[in-house]
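Request: Show me your protein:
***
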Amino acid sequence: MIRLILLVCPITVVLMGCGHRPERYVAPDEVSDFAVLYRGNCAACHGADGRSGGARPLHDSLYLALVGKDRLRDVIAKGVLHTAMPPFAQKDGGTLTDRQIAILADGVEARWSH
């Protein structure tokens, strides 16, 4: 028994990373950080900075003023027919919750509408 304890204890310490705790897992529909949501859902087409992708720049205060926050939420949620913009709302076949869509729309407006 003592041999087993002497063998298991050092291995356990090594595997635990000497006190390092892994980050808590967050389910995809619980993510609420704008940067994480934008990077995972928007940046590939609209660019990491909102202006350097192949799709419409979101870092465009004139576009954001004309489209308005409600329409921006609709575009994110439902997509745009006959374009490469897919729907992101869960109820329309996407992966994002209504709350996550609101976070994205609010974040885009807060960062790039001025």
Q: What stands out?
A: The helical segments are 2-15, 34-41, 43-46, 61-78, 98-112. The mean pLDDT is 88. The first helix runs from residue 2 to 15. The chain is about 50% helix and 0% strand.
